[in-house]
Amino acid sequence: MEFLKKPILTEKASALTEKSNRFTFKVEHKANKLQIKAAVEKMYGVNVVAINTMVVNGKLKSRNTKGGLVSGRSPKYKKAVVTLKDGETIDYYSNI
């Protein structure tokens, strides 16, 4: 089972990477910290120091249609913030 879905490449995540050598990933909802650590170390060949996980609730979305206002939510997802050993980095674009 593949636990890493994709990296999160937002301004906030980029600032976290530059400031404190931490990288963010969208992960499988049932994955635990040990599985995420093993997947990151295997895929990128780095040493993981710490992992923080969180479940991000989806944003409320609404739009106007011919039938009236339609409202709903975008799906929730699990996010992992991975702290690497000093001097190591992850190049997201090397695996493409």
From TrEMBL:
The lineage of its organism: Bacteria, Pseudomonadati, Bacteroidota, Sphingobacteriia, Sphingobacteriales. The gene is rplW. Pfam families: Ribosomal_L23. This is Large ribosomal subunit protein uL23. It comes from Pedobacter quisquiliarum. GO terms for molecular function: rRNA binding; structural constituent of ribosome. SUPFAM superfamilies: Ribosomal proteins S24e, L23 and L15e. Transmembrane segments: none annotated. GO terms for biological process: translation. Part of the 50S ribosomal subunit. Contacts protein L29, and trigger factor when it is bound to the ribosome. GO terms for cellular component: ribonucleoprotein complex; ribosome.
